[in-house]
Amino acid sequence: MLPAGDDPQTRTDLAAYQAGALRWLGGGVIAVVLGVLLGVAAVTVAGNTGNRVPGAGLVVVALVFAGILATGAGAGALLRAVRWRRALTSASWRTGTLRIAGPSIIAFEPEGYDELAPGDDDRVHLRLLSTAVWRTRAVQRLDGFPVRAAPVGGGQWVLTSDGLGTIVGARSVRRRS
Q1: Domain ranges within the chain, ordered by starting residue
Q2: Integer Cα distance of 92 and 151 in angstroms
Q3: What local confidence, expressed as pLDDT, does residue 165 receive?
Q4: Which of 9, 121, 133, 169 is most buried, by CB atoms within 10 Å?
Q5: Region 149-158 average pLDDT
């Protein structure tokens, strides 16, 4: 079976995921730089004129804080993309059906899964890694549709489907008895 990393669609989807990570990283860096520049400008204005700039301190703190969070999110997503790319060079896609059980709770049923076969539960129960509303809704729209999934190590899986345009990460969860 062909490794998932050799599939042109997989490379395109990983590139889209990586581009999103770079946008978060770049936006975070820009926010931090703008916060610092605004802080320097407010101090300079206050030093030269003796008048404080109203609200500048709050805006500086908000920009720097949001920038640090966005930079962390982007760096984490970039690391995940590298790890997923490496894992997909040896893993192959498994096709199956996606079932939605909640906002971020999903189950992957591999091809040939038989719900009526007792004791033969090949279903993979997953929780989405992303908390982005748009990504969660995109996955929810795939309920009952065919998807491709591959294990990427550490109890994590990646999912994609035709038309999704990106890779979605999920973590294995234990079923409650």
Answers
A1: 4-88, 94-172
A2: 8
A3: 85
A4: 169
A5: 90
Helix (H, G, I), strand (E, B) or coil at 76: helix
Residue of 167, 177, 162, 96 lying closest to 135 (CA atoms): 167
* pLDDT in the model for residue 125: 87
CA distance 105 to 126: 6
Closest CA to 55 of 38, 76, 72: 38
DSSP character string of 100-140: E-SSSEEEEEETT--TTSTT----EEEEES---HHHHHHHH
Q: Is the pTM of this model over 0.90?
A: no
**Displacement of CA 97 from its chain's centroid (Å):** 21
